[in-house]
Amino acid sequence: MDHETPPVSTPPRNPIRGLVLFALTCFAIGIAAMGWALSEWQPVRDLVFGTPVEAPKTVPAKRIAPPPAPPSPNAEAHMARIEQRLAVIDQQADNASNDAARAERLMIAFAARRAVERGVPLGYLEGALRRQFGAADPAAVATIIDAAHRPVTLEQLEDELEIAKADLTSNTNGPGWFDTVWQSLSSLAVIHRADEAAKTPAQHLDAARRALERDRVETAIREIQAMPGAASGKAWLDKAQRYVSARKALDRLEAITLAISN
Questions:
Q1: Among the residues of the chain, which ranges form H helices?
Q2: Stretch among 74-78, 90-94, 131-135 having the lowest mean pLDDT
Q3: Within 10 A of 135 (CB to CB), how many other CB atoms are there?
Q4: What is the pTM of this model?
Q5: H or E element in which residue 224 lies
Q6: DSSP class of residue 170?
Q7: What is the mean pLDDT of residues 144-155?
Q8: CB 227, CB 171: distance < 8 Å
Q9: Per mean pLDDT, which range of 79-93, 177-191, 237-251 is the poorest?
Q10: Does residue 72 have a pLDDT over 60?
Q11: Distance (Å, rounded) from C-alpha 41 to C-alpha 58?
């Protein structure tokens, strides 16, 4: 006889337990949503906790500076010493600037003299001479520049005097017979000092040579002008006169610079 196994019965579900679990789950989700809203959403925080009241801004009181104290006698004396020192420094700066300008003018004048004596072109010194001395003595500047364009050196004067000595000691190129007779008659009326004898042409020439050796060109010019053939030495005399004029112009520029320095 077969025995039949009775079917296993499942316990009935409790509907109250499911509702409780659902309610707890919804409560947890609500708490989480409320926490998120409070932390991330400003209007919700304001609704729950209220709008915070800002503290009134306090304006700092304006400080009134005390009146400055009157300067003490020591402070006034100190300021006077400072002003005196500043005045001395300004004067020293002005003196240094003036000294530099004078030194520059002297250097230009000396360089121009050296160029003229050597018979070389002035180059940039022409513009420097015009800037530094053009207003003070334009004639001297023009004379120096002309002397540089037509140079005459002391060596040239000595050499050309030796070349022209034959014509100077004679009167072959001198004036006509009437002028010769007139000069002869005039020479009769010349009164010489007791200790002074008339020079011969050779003596005039020797005196001119010695004068050139000492760079006394004006003395040499007078000696040549007193020779019988002075007319034939006109070219030499012109060059010698240009030489003298250039040196006098250079002397004037140096004198101007020294006068300004004093």
A1: 15-40, 42-49, 73-118, 125-133, 138-149, 154-169, 177-188, 201-213, 217-225, 234-261
A2: 90-94
A3: 9
A4: 0.55
A5: helix 217-225
A6: S
A7: 92
A8: no
A9: 177-191
A10: yes
A11: 31
